Task: structure prediction
Amino acid sequence: MRKSQLLIYIVLVVSVTGCAQLLKKPPGKIVEAPEERPPGKIVEAPEERFVKECLRKGRVYEDKGDIVAALKQYKIAMTVDPRNQEAIENRNRVEIELRNLAEEHYMVGLKFHKQGKYGLAHHQFLVALRLWPDYPEVVEILTSRKRLKIKRYIVHTIKPGESLSKVANIYYGDYHKFPVIAKYNNITDATRIEIGQKIKVPEIEGTEFLFGKEAIEEEKVEVADAGFRAWEGYALEAQKKEEEPEVEVKEEEKKPEDQIAIYRDYGVDLFREKKYREAIVIFSKVLNERPEDSIALEYSYKAHFQQGITLFSKKDYLAARDQFEVCLRYKTDCQKCHGYIKESEDSYKETHYKKGIQFFNNELLTEAIWEWRLVKLIDPDYKRVNYLISKANTILKKVKQLKETQEKKL
Result:
């Protein structure tokens, strides 16, 4: 009996080792493949499959530049598997990225507000809040309000060389108070006033009013203070009758034309800082409003191309290929894009093909078959992939039969 068992064992070793040796090639540099795991013999639980699908969707959203949606997927994955390390790391990384983006929009909003461009500032604050819903400074700006009373105003006619800040300095002695005048007159962009335009300059309770000889007209008004940077935060609201309920003045919902230019310039800045994924998001917003914008189209192409180069250098070949394919939407005659698409697919196939050979030589047949199947999904006729899969399956079948025979004899 022992001789019979020994003979079966020798045949098994010779069969597996001999077939593997036939495929061995001279040693060379093996390109590491992206981390992919064979399914194995154990069927995954529904929860595990759901978590993996959420992680996959999150990565897809990130590649598209929608990191808010990506964060949502990672959080969903963590609700099912709170200890999943990949979900935890991705969530933390994306949250940091979102906070950085939110801060950038917040700073742009402050810049617009200081310039008197309240509609643009308000939009930037809303974008920041979408990226980081708990951003304390933005929440304070958009929700905090206090009230001041105004009963009189002066009608001032804009003269050549005058701006709202100069008018504020004339009547309040402080040019920083120009937002009060702008919002009292429902001016969403304080830089856009014209010579001869008549504006109302309100008298603010508790502030010296330097009205000179100008005629003062009576009007019962209550002022809503947005609680933002002292005088810069006044959101004014007029009432014709004191007893009427307060009605808040809303910002214009229509996007100003120059807002597109602001976004475009911001996208260019992000591109120059090599923040290609963020730039792609910004340029997509410009193109949603103005599909034929030549600058946005050009930089969208460049951003996708550079993102593809970055992914290729990280050996994430299929993700790189997808970026180069997007480039062709902007430039159908991009020869470099076609070249990189082919090179990305070739690198992916060769990486997994060699990985399969490595597994096979180490007698890890199931893992080898998995790698070759990844190759086959891209190119069914790549090299000897069909033969190798068939050969590995044959060996596995023989090994299984030998084990079953041995078990029966025992």
About this structure: Residues 100-131 form one domain. The chain is about 60% helix and 10% strand. Residues 18-35, 215-256 have pLDDT under 50 and may be disordered. The first helix runs from residue 2 to 22.
